Amino acid sequence: xxxxxxxxxxxxxxxxxxxxxxxxxxxxxxxxxxxxxxxxxxxxxxxxxxxxxxxxxxxxxxxxxxxxxxxxxxxxxxxxxxxxxxxxxxxxxxxxxxxxxxxxxxxxxxxxxxxxxxxxxxxxxxxxxxx
Length: 131
Fold this sequence. Notes:
This protein is mainly beta. It is built from two helices and eight strands; from the N terminus they run ββββαββββα.
């Protein structure tokens, strides 16, 4: 799926179109690859494959920018920093990537809530199913 990020991604504002695809069938991991610069790619995960406890309020301004009419059209992902492999990889739970799958619009939202970390160990999510 080609997703348009009207504001780009933090640090990559100049690029707005990204391909989103699953790394393997049935995998919780996805790639978000820049259309214009294919070497710019992010590893994402679907946090709900590990827990149902990850929740936050999506700001109304973000809902409007993403043209969200029905929350069933929303997909939530988190960026994984895979440096050092699975044992030391971290997940950014503080700034989820929100995608309106019906309209193919996306945005990375930086949450005001402080209960989530920028660097939650991936291993913690996998082994304990905790966020």
